Structure formats: structure tokens, C-alpha cells
């Protein structure tokens, strides 16, 4: 489905394209053990690359940052240059469902807030071929924190994220797809607001005025507002969880 241009206006010049923060990125990365001195990392669905830059600072390794939207990659390249990280970050425009990297070429595959696009289980299965022996796949994924959410929020996500599962269901997927669970943790609520929902809320009023005669654009903006209000009301029922997984060579 082709997205209305207002979607990209809402999400342009944003620190992130989903919930998260540098502290959580750091917490997840520090759970990885026995990495090479300069690990080779693939950041899938990197967006504008806030977490890519943090991974570069943490790892001092070589990072390939992949996304389908060139303006996000341009923003990442510009910031990497400003921070003196251009030599260790390489951007690639591409589709996460059709990656053509060499097999067993990465120590870490990182998917922060992006694996839902392909599906948690499908991502774990299809991307494992690109991991080196004992490599890690680290992903933050939206999950149900309680198994019986109110109908209003359940109905919204059954349409927007139909594969959304509970933590326990995702832990079973990790095991069944050939990984060892290193650990997991829920992102704090502040991770949704500071660099994601709050900047979006600031943009919406002017965009509603700009597109006041465009029903499709107004519908897109209304969906953004609905998502934010649902989180205000029901954040106890769902959230983002980091899953830190290591390839199980015995599988």
C-alpha cells in the first residue's frame, strides 16, 4: 500500500522512527558477550539512525545500516559525518525481506523497532543465515504485556500489527527458530514519548491545517493521533520489549 506523503512529513526530521532510547540500546548491547574487538554489525530498518550512532560509539566496529527510505539514510550519513563516525557506518538502501549479504558475515544483527515489518518469527528465521557462528540477533518488538487487553486497543492492533504476540509467545518463537535467549526487558514508557510521540504531536496541528481539504491525509493524521491516545490510555497492556538472542549452533 502506497503511503500518503503526509506520513513522511510527520516522520521526517525525527530522532527515531519508533519507541526507544540510547540507554535501552546500550543496555541491550552490553548483554552481548565475547564479541570481536571490532564486530561487524547489520542494523536492519535503521531509520534516521539514532541507535546506529549509539552502536558505533559502543562497538567501534563496522556497521551496515539498511533502510528503504533514502532521506533517513541521508540524515544518518550527515549525523555520522558530524560525529566523526562516517568511516565505520555504511548506509545501504534496501528491503529487509530481500537482503543479499554474504552468509555468515555479521557478528550482530540489530533490529530496533523494525522487525515487525517482516514479522518477528520470519525475521529470526530468514536473517539467521547472515550470522556468524554464535552471532547475535537483537530486536525490539511490540508485544502484549497482558493477555486480555481492552477491545479498543486490541481492535486497533489487530489491524495495524496483526502478528503482535505476548512476551511468552515470542520467547517460544526464539527457542523454536534456533536461538538461545540471552535476555529480554521492557522499554520504559518514556522511550515512547521523548524522541517519538512528543515530536509527532508537535507536528500534527500544522499538518492538519495544511491538508485540511485532503481527506486521505487527514485520515493518516487521525490514525497517528489515535495511536498516541491509545498508548496514553492503555500503556499497561502493551509495550516494546528488547529480545537478545544468540544463534544456537546445536539447533
Low-confidence stretches: none
Q: How much helix is in the residues?
A: 40-55%
Average pLDDT taken over every residue: 94
Q: DSSP strand (E) fraction?
A: 15-25%
Radius of gyration, taken over Cα atoms and rounded to an integer in Å: 18 Å
Classification by helices and strands = alpha/beta
* Distance between the first and last residues' Cα: 37 Å
N-to-C order of helices and strands: HHEHEHEEHEHEHEHHE
What gross morphology would you assign?
Answer: globular
User: Based on DSSP secondary structure assignment, what is the total number of beta strands?
Assistant: 8
Count of runs of 4 or more consecutive helical residues: 9
CATH fold naming of the domain at 17-147 and 164-192 and 237-247: Rossmann fold
